[in-house]
Design brief:
alpha/beta, TIM Barrel, eight-stranded parallel β-sheet, 9 helices, 8 strands, 42% helix, globular
């Protein structure tokens, strides 16, 4: 089963042709799409999108790059949504130490509080881990949650193994399709296959063949074929094993 474990189908970039984008994904045999929210003022749109399109499921969270305009009270709003909407995960949450004009301390506060909510509701988490893998692992060891996915993983093999020990899967998508992404491609080829899940992060992280154009969930089969080539197995085997991995870490998918 092809599962896109990270796709922002609710993003404004899809407002003009969301029906067609979803139909193309279905035609490409993408059976499930996980749609993570990024801010509380978008929760209602996320809910509306997943309710409209079969095979789509929601996660709710406050993205690290959206914590600056967020209010502390947004955490109470998130708690209510987790209690009432029964999402598949808390996300997209995490840390981003790449963007210079964000506040790391505020990011950390929101990340820790959302990990506590995930623990309270026994939900996995969808993690944004850009330039912050070790810091995130530190918090995950302290605040244990029922696993999740390290989205767009670009760490070391040692860091990957630490995530796996904590019950996490690692998300691979468009970055893996570039021949120059040697570390990501080596990880994709060498990690246990059952530790890998597929994702697009659409409309972001377009694969190599899109030449920077908007990404869509319909690209997932080609991304799976790239992974199959790196590992020397069939695309069907990639779909089967990564689908099982996604189900195991996101039981609601």
């Amino acid at each position: 089963m092809l599962i896109d474990t990270h796709c922002h189908l609710d993003a404004a970039e899809f407002d003009a042709d969301r029906d067609a984008v979803h139909a193309a994904a279905v035609a490409a045999k993408v059976e499930r799409i996980v749609v993570p929210a990024v801010a509380v003022d978008g929760f209602s749109k996320t809910k509306s999108v997943v309710g409209r399109y079969p095979g789509c499921v929601a996660a709710y969270g406050i993205h690290p790059l959206y914590v600056m305009p967020a209010q502390d009270s947004d955490l109470s709003v998130l708690r209510d949504w987790l209690a009432n909407e029964k999402p598949v995960a808390v996300g997209e949450i995490g840390l981003d130490l790449y963007v210079a004009d964000s506040d790391p301390a505020r990011q950390e506060f929101f990340f820790v509080e959302q990990l506590k909510l995930a623990r309270e509701f026994d939900l996995p988490v969808l993690l944004h881990v850009r330039r912050a893998v070790d810091q995130i692992l530190k918090h995950l060891r302290r605040i244990r949650v029922p696993g999740g996915i390290a989205h767009a993983f670009n760490g070391s093999r040692q860091q990957a193994d630490e995530f796996i020990k904590l019950g996490f899967k690692l998300g691979f998508g468009g970055a893996m399709t570039f021949s120059g992404s040697t570390r990501i491609r080596a990880l994709a080829a060498e990690l246990p296959l059952d530790a890998i899940v597929l994702e697009t992060d659409a409309p972001d992280i377009p694969p190599a063949w899109l030449n920077g154009r908007r990404n869509t969930p319909g690209e997932l089969p080609e991304i799976a074929r790239v992974l199959a080539g790196l590992r020397g197995v069939s695309p069907d085997e990639i779909a089967r094993v990564t689908g099982l991995a996604a189900h195991s870490v996101l039981p609601g998918v």
